[in-house]
Write a structure and sequence with these properties.
Elements lengths: L2 H15 L7 E2 L2 H8 L3 H13 L3 E6 L2 E6 L1 H19 L4 E7 L4 H6 L2 H11 L8 E4 L2 H8 L5 E3 L2 E2 L4 E2 L2 E10 L2 E10 L8 E5 L4 H5 L6 E5 L1
Antiparallel strand pairs: 1-3, 2-3, 4-5, 4-12, 5-11, 6-9, 7-8, 9-10, 9-12, 10-11
Length: about 220
C-alpha cells in the first residue's frame, strides 16, 4: 500500500468515525470527497478498494450508501492513534557532551554510496563525510541508544565486502546560540561504548560551529 493511498484510507476512516466508530453511517462519496479534498471519482474508487480489503462494509442504494467501519478499519485507526500519541507524548532529551576525536572510521563509512542514499531518503539530508563524537555519561548514552524513534539504515554488499546496518534518530546540535540539523547514529557493530554518541550532519560541524576537542556541545534528540 502506497503512503498516499494509506493516508487516504485513514482520512476516510476518520471522517466515518466522526459519525460513529461502531455505527452504520449514511453518507455519499460526494460528501466524503468534499470533506477530505478528493474528487468524487477518487473517493468512490478508494471506497471500493477499502471494501475489498475489509476496512469497511457498504450497502449501496439509489439515494446513497450506508457504510460501517469493520474490524480491520478500526485496527488501522488505532495504529494511527498510537503513532500520534507517541509523537505528542514524546519528551525531548537535552544532552550535554564533550567533543572528542574518533578513530577516523566515520569519514569512510558515512561517505559510502550505500549509506548516503538511505540517509537522503530517511533523514532528508546527505551527511558530511565524518562523524562528531560526543563523550557523555554512560547512563545518558544508554538512554539515547535505546530511543524508540530510531530509523533503520540497512546494510549492503559490494563486490569486495559487506557493510552492516545502523540505526539513526533525528536530532539537533546547539552551540553558542546556533542550532544545526543533525542525527544520532548507532551502528549495529561499533567500537564505541555507551559513553560515546556519534552524530552526523549536512555540514562539517567542527567548522560550522568552530568547535574543537574538549568543547561542550548540546545535543537535542
Amino acid at each position: 500500500m502506497g503512503a498516499k493511498r494509506h493516508s487516504n484510507y485513514v482520512d476516510i476512516l476518520m471522517e466515518l468515525a466522526k459519525h460513529g466508530l461502531y455505527d452504520e453511517t449514511k453518507i455519499s462519496t460526494t460528501a466524503i470527497a468534499a470533506r477530505i479534498g478528493l474528487s468524487q471519482q477518487s473517493a468512490s474508487r478508494i471506497m471500493r478498494e477499502m471494501e475489498k480489503q475489509g476496512l469497511v462494509s457498504r450497502k449501496v442504494f439509489a439515494d446513497g450508501q450506508v457504510v460501517r467501519i469493520e474490524e480491520h478499519g478500526i485496527e488501522l485507526l488505532n495504529r494511527r492513534y498510537l503513532e500520534l500519541g507517541s509523537i505528542f507524548s514524546r519528551k525531548k532529551h537535552y544532552i550535554n557532551g564533550i567533543l572528542v576525536s574518533g578513530v577516523g572510521e566515520g569519514k569512510y563509512y558515512v561517505g559510502l554510496k550505500g549509506y548516503k542514499k538511505q540517509f537522503k531518503e530517511k533523514l532528508n539530508f546527505i551527511p558530511y563525510a565524518g562523524t562528531l563524537n560526543l563523550k557523555v555519561d554512560p547512563k545518558i548514552g544508554r538512554v539515547v541508544n535505546n530511543l524508540p524513534e530510531y530509523i533503520v539504515i540497512d546494510g549492503f554488499s559490494t563486490k569486495k565486502r559487506s557493510f552492516g546496518g545502523l540505526r539513526c534518530a533525528k536530532a539537533k546540535i546547539e552551540h553558542r546560540g546556533k542550532q544545526i540539523v543533525a542525527a544520532v547514529i548507532k551502528p549495529f557493530r561499533t567500537v564505541h561504548g555507551e559513553d560515546i554518541i556519534e552524530v552526523i550532519a549536512p555540514d562539517c560541524l567542527r567548522e560550522k560551529l568552530r568547535i574543537k576537542d574538549g568543547d561542550k556541545v548540546r545535543l537535542v534528540v
